[in-house]
Amino acid sequence: MSDIALEQTLDFGDYLSAFRRRSSTILLVAGVVFLIGLIIALVWPPTYKAAATILIEEQDIPAELIQSTVTSYAAQRIQVISQRVMSRTNLLQIINKYNLYERERKLNPIEDVLSNMRDDIGVDMINANVMDPRTGRPTEATIAFTVSFNSDSPQEALKVANELTTLYLDENVKSRTEKATETYDFLTVESKHLSDEIAGLQKQLADFKEKNINTLPEVRDLNTQILDRTQRDITDVDTQIRGLQERKVYLEGQLALLEPYGSNDATSPSARLDVLRIQYINLISRYSPDHPDVIRTRNEIQALEKETGQQASREELQAQLVALQGQLATASKKYTPEHPDVKSLKRQIANLKDQIRQADSAGNTKRHAAVPDNPAYVTLKSQLEAANTDMRSLQAKRAQLGDKVTDYENRLAQTPRSEQEYESIRLNLDNATRRYQEIKAKQMTAGAAQEMEKERKGEKFTLIDPAILPEEPVSPNRGAIIFLSLVLALGAGVGSAAVRESTDKSVRGSKGMTMLLQAAPLAVIPYLTSEAETSARTRRRLLVITAAVVGVIIALLLVNYFVTPLDVIWFKGLRKVDLIMGD
Q1: Is the peptide bond preceding residue 476 cis, with omega within 30 degrees of 0?
Q2: 383: which of 53, 201, 364, 508 is 20 to 30 A away, CA to CA?
Q3: What whole-number distance in Å separates Cα of residue 138 and Cα of residue 36?
Q4: Using the 8-state DSSP alphabet, how is residue 525 labeled?
Q5: What's the CA dihedral at 518, 519, 524, 527 to 10 degrees?
Q6: Contact, 348 vs 289, CB < 8 A?
Q7: Helices (H), 86-153
C-alpha cells in the first residue's frame, strides 16, 4: 500500500530528484547504446547504386502503313529480355570480366553468387497514363524503365550498370530482328506449301475436267439443250418414217395392180408364160413327155422365156420334177427300165434336177431378174425403191438419234456425281487460293517489318539517361541509424533508471518518512555533502565528459577511415552552404 500511495503522490520534483540520482546510470547506458549504434552506422559497408534510364520509343513508321511482327506489350518484352540478359552465361561473363564477388566466390557455390547478383540487379518500370489507340480510353502503359546495379564500389556499380544497359539494348534489337526473321521465314515456308498444294489441286481439277468433260456442271445446260433438240429430231424422224410407211403401203398396193412387162392385160408375154407353165405342169402330170400337147407347150414356154428373159422359178421346177417323178413311177410299173419312155423320163428328171441346183446356186427363189418394160410399173417401182431407201436412211438416223439420246441422258445422270466431286475439288482450290493470298499478304507485311527492324525504324530502346558514377551510397542511411541510435540510447538510459528506481526500496525525504510512519516528522535536517563526496562527483563528471569527447573522436576517426574522409565532408558542407547562401 505504501508503494502505491507513494506512486500516487509523486510529483515533478520527485521525478527530477530521481533523474538527478540516476543521471550517471542514464548517461552510462545511453552512451553505450548510442556508441554501439554509431559504430554500426559507421562500420556498415556502403552500397552504391548506378542506374540508367531507357526510353521505349514507338516505331518511326506509322503502324497503319507497316504492322510490326512484335505484338507483345512493352512490360512483357522487358521481362523476357531480363530473363535472357540475366542468364547464367551472361552473368558469369560479367563476373569474370570485372572480378565481382571475389570473396563470395571463394566461400559460396556459384549458384549462390549468381542469386546474389540477380538480387543486386534492379529493373524498375516507369509507367504513365496514355491513350490506348485501340480502345480510345486512357490506360497505364510502360514508357521507360531503369536498369541498376548495387555494389560496394561505385566504379563497379557504374561498369556493371553500363554493361547491363548494353545487353538490354542489344538483346532488344536481337530479339526483335529474330522475331521478324522467324515470322518471315515461317510465312515463306507456309506460302511454298500452299503454292504446292494449289498446283496439285489445279492439276487434279484439270485431270478431272479432261476425264469428265461431258458430265461437267458447265456443260449441263448444253447437254440439256442437245438432248431436247435430239428428242425433237427423233419426233420429226418418226413422223417421216410413218409417212414413208404409208407411202410404201400405197405404192406396193398400186404396184401389185400393174404388170411389169408390156401392158397390163392377160395377153402379155409374161402373163402368157405364167399360164403356159401352169398348163405344162398339168399336162406332164397326165401325159408322157412325148405327148404332142406336152411338146407343143414346152416349146412355146421356151420361146416366151427367150422373149421375156424370165426363167422358171425353183418352185415351178420343183412342181415339174414332182410331176415327172409321178410319171416315172407309173411307167416303171408298166415298162422295164430299158423302155424308151422310162429312159426319157429319167433324162428329163435329171435335167430338172440340174436346173433346180443351178437355181439354188444362183439364189433365185422365184425367177431370174428381168427388166420390166411397163412405164407405169417402172415409175411406181422406182418410187417404191426410193421410199425403201429413205426408210432405211431414216431408220438408221433414228437409231443414231436414239443412241445419242441415251448418251446424253447418261451424261445428265452422271452430272450430279461429277458436280459433287468437281465442287469438292474447286472448293479446296478456292480455300487454298484464299489462304495463299492471305499468307502472301502477311509475308509481304512481315518482309517490310523485317526491313524496318533491320534499319532500326521499329519500336526501340533509347538510352536517355546513362549511368554515372555514384557519389553517395544509397545504403545504409547513416543519419537515420544515428538518430535511431540516439532515440534508443535515451530510451534505454531512462528505462534503466526507471528500473533501478522502482527496485530501490530506500526511503528518501520527509514525504517518504510521512508515508512510511503515517505521521509528519518534527524537523527536516538537510543532507550535508562532504568534501570527499564533492570530489567524487566532480571526478564522475569529468569522466563522463572525457568519455563523450573520446566517443566523438572515435566516431570521427571511424567516419574518416571507413566512410568518407573528413576533408571531403568539410568541402561538401562548404559547397552546400555556398549553394544555400547563393539561393
Answers
A1: yes
A2: 364
A3: 53
A4: P
A5: -20
A6: yes
A7: 88-98, 102-107, 110-120
CB 81 within 8 A of CB 480: no
pTM of full prediction above 0.90 = no
CA atoms within 13 A on the CB side of 482: 11
Higher model confidence: residue 141 or residue 190?
190
Average pLDDT in the 534-550 region? 78
Assign residue 539 a region: left if phi > 0, alpha if psi is -120 to 50, beta otherwise?
alpha
Residue 369 has a pLDDT of 47
H/E stretch holding 150: strand 138-151
Evaluate whether 307 touches 299 at the Cβ level (below 8 Å): no
Q: Is 99 left (phi over 0), alpha (psi -120 to 50) or beta?
A: left
User: Using an 8 Å Cβ cutoff, are 489 and 33 in contact?
Assistant: yes
Asked whether the beta carbons of 41 and 481 are under 8 A apart, the reply is yes
Select from 521, 509, 529 the least CA-distant residue to 14.
509
Most confidently modeled of 68-72, 78-82, 379-383, 573-577?
78-82
pLDDT 10s digits, 116-156: 999 999 999 888 877 666 666 777 778 889 999 998 888 99
How far out from the chain centre does Cα 515 lie? 99
